[in-house]
What does this fold into?
Amino acid sequence: MAAALLFSTALAAPAAEIKLGYALAEDSHYGAGAKAFDEALKAELGDAFTVKHFPSSGLGGEREVIEGLQIGTVDATIASSGTLSNFVPEVGVFDVPFLFRDLAHARAVLDGPIGDEMLVKFDDVGTHALAWGEQGFRHITNNRGPVAKPEDLAGLKIRTMENPVHLKAFTALGAAPTPMAWPEVIPALEQGAIDGQENPLSVIVSAKLDEVQKYASLDGHVYSPAIVMVSKKLWDSLDDTQKAAFEKAGDAAVAAMRGYVDTVEAEGVAALKERGMEVNELTPEDKKAFQDKLADVYVEYQAQFGKELMDSIIATQ
Ligand code: PAF
It folds into this structure.
């Protein structure tokens, strides 16, 4: 009996631990995605893997986490496009301001051939991308005053992601952009080192930015995709059945993130107003003034990413 027990214990393979790091809290869209990923993996593969969650930048900023994937010290992440173009520059096309009409348009592009082709490129940089998730459209928050026209941004010390496409746009709009990793943003806002930042409602609400920002201006200047990815080291260690299970888990994470975004898009503004934030929504005419001011850099984006690619994104239904 004792020998049989010893034998079966020796046969049971220990669960492999998946270190999953992400920038936001468990009750954010990333947390929702991470939970769905974990549950789907369990449903598919039982106890073969244990997902260990590191929310709230527990493994560092997004750039550090992706570098961790490359060297195999981190296994999985859900990250914004903020730093992605530092690894796969072509992905920066999704960061071009006012490129996507609405969430349905962005989802159609990311779920179609253009999105798929971009995912494949991550295999060349020591990672494996499973699917495109999302954060929603980014808006400006700050402590100086409402932003309704480009002139309202003049000299505004605004934190941007470490993303050259965003940096170029805010410079052209007349702001004073400062690229900064997310873990430094709330302390910098608290200390007044910067006036504002920009993020989608999903982040403004879940990170409680109303506690450090008075004004939210809903300009939707750029769509913010996110990505569900694993290290190449982990991916290459999986057999075909396990790979299929990870793909399914990636899809489950995306569905959960999009569900969260849909809800916060519908209810987030009321929640922020209730918490005392002053919120103004830009009209299509207001947004046009921002687009006009970006006309020259738009031509530069076309030269960088290819006019044909940008046109086919715009033409996607
Ligand atoms: O602003 C950013 O850096 C990103 O949107 C965040 C909040 C880290 C989520 O990916």
In short: The chain has 13 helices and nine strands.
